[in-house]
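Study this pair:
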Amino acid sequence: MIMTDSVQDLDRTPIPDSAQPGKPDTGQRNTERPDAGHRELPVTTAVELVIPVYNEEADLADSVLRLDGYLREQFPYDYLITIADNASTDNTMIIAERLAGTLPAVRVLHLDQKGRGRALKAAWSASRAAVVGYMDVDLSTDLRAILPLVAPLVSNHSDVAIGSRLARSSRVIRGPKREFISRSYNLLLRGSLSASFSDAQCGFKALRRDVAERLLPLIEDNNWFFDTELLVIAERVGLRIHEVPVDWVDDPDSRVDIVATATEDLRGIARLGKGFLTGSIPITRVRDEFVQRSRATGTGDGGPRPWTLRGPTGGLLGQLIRFATVGVLSTLAYLVLYLALRGVIDAQAANLIALLITAVANTAANRRMTFGVRGPENMIKHHAGGLIAFGIGLGLTSGSLWSLHHTVSTPTRWVEVAVLVTANAVSTLIRFLALRGMMRNKRAGS
């Protein structure tokens, strides 16, 4: 990673509360070093905006000049613009270095590997601004939205801020295909991960640097799913996410591979779901760190609140999507177990064992993921209800097998599977209604 800065030193005194309007980061210096160990880097500027780029020689100069000109004339805080070059193979890096050598508030960060998430991690981790953010190089977002984006962060009112193209008051110009994909993706997030923010992939976000320092180590993705992972984890931690309706003009020359990105996003959603289910993503520990910091510094209102299912994400549609996701995984596990057991025992015994194992796992997963229930309260009751639903499912599947074998003398293995899948679909509906009735009023935090 190579960094080129248009100023000579990065150690600068903290900015005063009354920053001059449109003041570029020109470098008041302080050579004192913080103590060793985990430390808060000194604040050197109010806001740092990162522009991730890959082979953007055609648009880079015009976009940076336009952004710098706007901030210099209209922005009330000190600012820094960082061009994060993602291993470009054209003249992007040369143009970026020229801009950094000409404009006092521009610096360049070069990475040898591609990935928007990787670029943002590197730039934000090296930043000494109070607030860090990013914009797409095409400046699709109206620049007048920058101040509404960062102001709640500078004032410590909010922790994360995002632009939203899906808010009611947003004005968006883009094709119907992209609109459909965007809305479908965010609906999927609400259903599968209980996200309550409206637009995960808008290229216009910011967060406080102290928040970034704690969240970035938890984020695995280095590409397009980085945004979603950041927001979902921030929400689970209990941080306050501020949304800004934006005026957005889509770039028709976007080079994003929609199919590859969608596949990557689905894998990311599955990984996050697994991480939350198993506890491998340390949400509670990070939340406690924020609470302790808030109490120690005397800022805020005690830190983030524990995350709970609430609003439309806890409604019937969200529950159905999450239940269906768990159900698909349970059905696949059931079929694998059934086929494995069928080779050594008869059909009825294989069905009983496979159904029992997956029923217990299904109840546990739905209790946590679909209905948001945490802790041991009513666990026995919920699993008992799940076993009753299991009994109904066993009766349906066993009866279906009995009917099949008395109707067809020697059915193939795959005919058995088809009959069982149909019977399981009916028992799944019964299970959903039963579990929803038991757990409706037992969500954690409600």
About this structure: The first strand starts at residue 2 and ends at 5. Residues 1-139 form a domain with the Spore Coat Polysaccharide Biosynthesis Protein SpsA; Chain A fold (CATH 3.90.550.10).
